[in-house]
UniProtKB/TrEMBL annotation:
Cytoplasm keyword on record: yes
Family in the record: Belongs to the RbfA family.
Subcellular location: Cytoplasm
Species per Swiss-Prot/TrEMBL record: Simiduia aestuariiviva
Protein function: One of several proteins that assist in the late maturation steps of the functional core of the 30S ribosomal subunit. Associates with free 30S ribosomal subunits (but not with 30S subunits that are part of 70S ribosomes or polysomes). Required for efficient processing of 16S rRNA. May interact with the 5'-terminal helix region of 16S rRNA.
Gene3D superfamilies: 3.30.300.20
Protein name from the UniProt record: Ribosome-binding factor A
Keyword Ligase: no
Organism phylogeny: Bacteria, Pseudomonadati, Pseudomonadota, Gammaproteobacteria, Cellvibrionales
Signal sequence region: none
Length: 129
């Protein structure tokens, strides 16, 4: 019988919980603000972990890039905290990546809503689905 989850997936989930908690509790830089840790991808040899994040309340790309630079600068500190928290032989090197999927998803949803509203305005007699 095959395993339900791979080891890298379980470690990625544990890293996501641990990193998000430590960012919230230990990082006091005001340039970061509120951070959502969306996903973690760990390499098969557990040497590297890409952490996909979004920043709440940051409108411009420059603000997001500045906050991302702060997180990447604090990656070694966060790695040491994660090493104490998780019982792993080697702790992966952390690399933070700005995740634009939620922003892009909201933009696409707004475009779809606008297209549906325009279609209803042009054809008011069309049946609603």
């Amino acid at each position: 019988m095959a395993r339900e989850f791979k080891r890298t997936d379980r470690i990625a989930d544990a890293l996501q919980r641990s990193v998000s908690r430590f960012i919230q509790q230990e990082i006091r830089d005001p340039r970061i603000g509120m951070v959502n840790v969306n996903d973690v991808a760990v390499t098969r040899d557990l040497a590297y972990a890409k952490i996909f994040v979004t920043f709440v309340g940051r409108e411009t790309d420059e603000e997001c890039e500045a906050a991302l630079a702060v997180l990447n600068k604090a990656a070694g500190f966060l790695r040491s905290l994660v090493a104490k928290d998780l019982d792993l032989r080697t702790t992966p090197r952390l690399q933070f990546v700005y995740d634009k999927t939620t922003i892009r998803g909201n933009q696409l949803a707004n475009l779809i809503d606008r297209a549906v509203a325009d279609d209803k305005a042009k054809n008011p007699d069309a049946p609603a689905e």
